[in-house]
Design a protein that fits this description.
globular; disordered C terminus; 16-stranded mixed β-sheet; alpha/beta; two-stranded parallel sheet
């Protein structure tokens, strides 16, 4: 063996490159552990550091209940582990001390009941130096095993606990409430260094326990996530309000009536949640607003993610954002992300025909939906992707650009759109001028703008001319920061008229000096019911204009105007054409940036 391999740091680095976590990497590192004595310990450290099943650890125990029976197996196990100098005990301790991350999913690997009884009865610790636990529990055996994974004063810093439906329905023990409460108490007592804690319990309310008595153990917690029923909200808010180091909080409540729990919501002192920076809320708009209304005002939050459910009206989105206005400091907030999860029933309701009596126009959002968010002047990111149209007029875009001058990413549901021109036509391309004028830090922009009509492009050209001939100051063009633009309905729908696309290309050249990517979305008219995600047919300007040469399988032939569009981008990508990544998902090659 070369002398360089005797340097432990170098050997660890080499073995780290060899081990990549997949099946082949595990086999390679296992072979390396058998090469020589010098390789053995560092290779075993990699091999056992992250374990995605508890059975490899259990197989190290000198116990075979199926063969010898419970009494004989228990005696053998206690005799072996009681003698710390025995080879079996030394081997188990050596291996178990290497485990830092354990993922245990009981539905995938059920524990034999008798083996669990032996471990619990004799207080065996399976993972004495564990740091990260990922647990999915579906039976009484899994709940009883938890104390064996957490030693007193353990080094664990991250615990994820998920209670499967089976434990509530198909394998429900009589004392389930006491068992779940005991599991939480074990975590509170045995994890004084815990930094991250995540709970998924969507079937019944959390058990009641004396929170003030136990939260002293959790004062190091900085990241907490609860995916719970609405009935558990008061207790979760009471618990998290007592965590003085909390920085990242996620609360997602499944759909349940909430009027009965409003009276049980705790009242918070002005100093609570003062360390909170990142806030994620999920549920119906009413539940999200209810949670916000319980918080003290003016919290110095930096990032908020709002995950709503179902089809939303202007009033729904505005209700959620107005709750955020009541909680977050207007000066501190830098990021707002609003999304909506749609079910099949929601999509069927949206696609309902005129005979159903459902007015789908109520789900076409406008400026009134996001108006409360305009009160945050220092936003870096605002993204609203709600799965339904968000139509803004040109004057709305001007107002947004003036309100959010420091924004860097602005995404206003540009991908999923249905164009209902007779009811509410999309804004013109002139709105791009307003963002290029006022938002001098903007890098990525996603809007619903009409690039398919000649009038829209001419309005953009006139706005550019007016800006160029106006007084100098903050309104100069082109924008040096915007690098990506998404819009629709697109120039694709004008049948690739060369004159029209060339006019659009000239406008873009005058608007953006560093544009690197542009995506145009083709939409379809409202009328025929169809799957929501087939509304959009994404094409890229690169496919049709930059990399469409003779013989390419694209929808249009090579024309001289193609090389003119985004001349800077064209020269850049042609220079590095050998590095292109082509995706044949759509008709013809498509560049993936």
């Amino acid at each position: 063996m070369h002398r360089a391999l005797a340097i432990s740091e170098l050997l660890t680095h080499i073995l780290g490159d060899l081990y990549n976590g997949d099946r082949d990497g595990i086999k390679d590192i296992a072979r390396a552990s058998r090469v020589c004595k010098s390789f053995r310990d560092p290779a075993l450290d990699f091999l056992w550091r992250n374990v995605d099943s508890i059975f490899p650890l259990l197989r190290l125990l000198p116990l075979d209940l199926e063969t010898h029976g419970e009494h004989h197996g228990t005696a053998q196990l206690l005799k072996t582990l009681g003698d710390l100098k025995s080879p079996d005990c030394q081997h188990y301790i050596s291996i178990s001390n290497r485990v830092r991350t354990l993922s245990f999913s009981e539905p995938r690997e059920p524990i034999p009941y008798r083996l669990m009884n032996v471990i619990v009865k004799h207080n065996l610790f399976l993972t004495p130096r564990i740091q990260v636990l990922r647990l999915c529990i579906s039976s009484e055996a899994g709940l009883r095993l938890l104390p064996a994974l957490l030693t007193p004063d353990s080094e664990v810093i991250d615990i994820s606990l998920s209670l499967d439906e089976d434990i509530y329905v198909f394998d429900r023990p009589e004392d389930l409430g006491d068992l779940i409460k005991s599991a939480y108490m074990t975590i509170f007592r045995c994890a004084p260094k815990l930094l991250q804690f995540s709970v998924v319990d969507l079937h019944e309310p959390l058990p009641l326990f004396s929170l003030p008595k136990h939260t002293a153990y959790l004062q190091n917690l900085t990241h907490v996530a609860f995916y719970i029923t609405a009935a558990s909200l008061p207790q979760v808010l009471d618990l998290t309000s007592q965590l003085h180091e909390l920085e990242d909080l996620t609360i997602q409540a499944c759909e349940q009536p909430f009027e009965e729990i409003r009276s049980r919501f705790p009242s918070f002192a002005p100093g609570t949640f003062s360390s909170l920076k990142n806030f994620t809320l999920g549920g119906s708009p009413e539940v999200i607003h209810l949670i916000c209304s319980a918080f003290p005002a003016n919290r110095n939050m930096q990032s908020v993610v709002l995950r709503m459910r179902g089809l939303c009206t202007n009033a729904d989105v505005a209700l959620v954002l107005s709750g955020l206005v009541a909680v977050a400091s207007k000066e501190s907030l830098r990021k707002i992300v609003v999304t909506s999860m749609l079910s099949h029933n929601d999509l069927a309701q949206w696609d309902a025909d005129a005979d159903s009596g459902i007015d789908t126009h109520q789900f076409m959002l406008d400026i009134h939906a996001i108006e409360p968010a305009l009160q945050f002047p220092n936003l870096d990111i605002f993204s609203a992707c709600l799965g339904i149209p968000l139509y803004l007029a040109d004057e709305d875009h001007l107002r947004i650009a003036q309100a959010w001058r420091s924004v860097q990413l602005l995404y206003l549901s540009s991908i999923v759109q249905r164009v209902v021109r007779g009811h509410r036509p999309p804004a013109s391309m002139a709105s791009l001028v307003r963002y290029a004028q006022h938002c001098r830090r903007l890098k990525a922009l996603g809007l619903c703008l009409d690039a398919s009509t000649e009038a829209s492009v001419e309005a953009c050209t006139r706005a550019i001319d007016a800006c160029s001939n106006g007084p100098e100051g903050d309104f100069y063009l082109p924008s040096p920061s915007i690098q990506m633009v998404e819009f629709g309905p697109s120039w694709v729908e004008c049948n690739f008229n060369p004159v029209h696309v060339t006019s659009l290309a000239k406008a873009f050249t005058r608007l953006f000096s560093n544009l690197a990517a542009c995506r145009a979305c083709r939409t379809e008219e409202l009328g025929v019911p169809q799957a929501a995600w087939t509304w959009m047919k994404v094409q890229t300007l690169y496919e049709y204009m930059l990399f469409a040469s003779q013989g390419s399988k694209v929808n249009t032939a090579w024309n001289s105007w193609k090389s003119k569009l985004f001349s800077k981008v064209c020269c850049f990508f042609l220079r590095f054409s050998r590095c292109r990544l082509l995706d044949h998902t759509f008709s013809g090659p498509r560049i993936t940036v």
